[in-house]
Amino acid sequence: xxxxxxxxxxxxxxxxxxxxxxxxxxxxxxxxxxxxxxxxxxxxxxxxxxxxxxxxxxxxxxxxxxxxxxxxxxxxxxxxxxxxxxxxxxxxxxxxxxxxxxxxxxxxxxxxxxxxxxxxxxxxxxxxxxxxxxxxxxxxxxxxxxxxxxxxxxxxxxxxxxxxxxxxxxxxxxxxxxxxxxxxxxxxxxxxxxxxxxxxxxxxxxxxxxxxxxxxxxxxxxxxxxx
Length: 227
Description:
Radius of gyration: 46 Å
Helix content: under 10%
Structural class: mainly beta
Shape: rod-shaped
CATH class of the largest domain: Mainly Beta
CATH architecture of the largest domain: Sandwich
Largest sheet: 5 strands, mixed
CATH topology of the largest domain: Immunoglobulin-like
CATH superfamily of the largest domain: Immunoglobulins
Number of domains: 2
């Protein structure tokens, strides 16, 4: 096979223009090859979420720590507010479970506040700052918590309460009118009461107010009582 160049098979040009066209047709354009590089493009998420948790409990010894045996308080409203790193407002409300615990899941990085609504029938106690994140007290019944990374566990942000004491028993004055057989000033066994005796009472209260006057009569056993 002939080793003549390819353009030798083309018809011989008859003029200068034809020769120029032939030469251009036979020219080869350079091919540019670039090396490919792997490039990882960062994405906007999702981030592994964080968790904020704690409890509301009966702080029996009032030491601001939930000790072993201190019962939780169920049904208390806990609210999470604040902004995430995308400047999105957050407002979520939960209630404590049977054991007094609460949990906020799927929390993105941001600055948040956890607030307790004071439960009825309890005296406000003190709070216990938890661990795992940058957190602190931010007023009564409120924590400020900073989530500055992903997949954090903000634990034991607890609210202590004290049990409401029962109302005091009302004061009363009572006694008997009786036949003091042995004249010793004591109603002994067998000494009968005297019924239908009118008893009056009057006095001044501790704060200086006039209590007024009241009256009653003894019952069948000679007993009377002012409440």
